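Reviewers of the previous submission asked for a worked example of the structure-prediction workflow described in the proposal, so we include one complete record here. The input consisted solely of the amino acid sequence. No template or homolog information was supplied to the procedure at any stage.
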Amino acid sequence: MNWDSDSAHIAPQVVYRITANSSNEVVTPKNYNLKWLGREVCNSHFFCLSLDGNVCGDYGINLNQVDTNKEVVGTTRVCFENVAYESELLPNEKSQIELWVAAPKPTLEFTCLFWCTTEGAIPPAKPDPEVTSDLVDKLVSGKLAA
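From that input alone, the workflow returned the following structure tokens.
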């Protein structure tokens, strides 16, 4: 996903890769909005393969649930790798990925995945040549419960 744009519409059962890498650079807070346009409830999942640097100290990721009135109705702070953070999105709601920074030049590097399902099914495996983790393969193939 491109941090330079600020939003995207999400499709069910597609895995989106969210990454950032910065070392000794000035990092500014950013938000990325993932809007659900389906008619049914979306079961959203956010899973970080790696969170390097002083996560939840120098920088962090918040998952905000934004309702149709553009109000944040829930926030989850992501501080741990290999944990599935889950929530439900109603039609036209957004999942906002917020990158916050507390240090002027934090060393940060992370790779996270986001996906949305309508029936709880894990998205079909689509190998990503940049990700070689067995954990990802198990997660997207349905062999590991989220």
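Helices lie at 134-141. We consider this example representative of the routine output the project will generate in years two and three.
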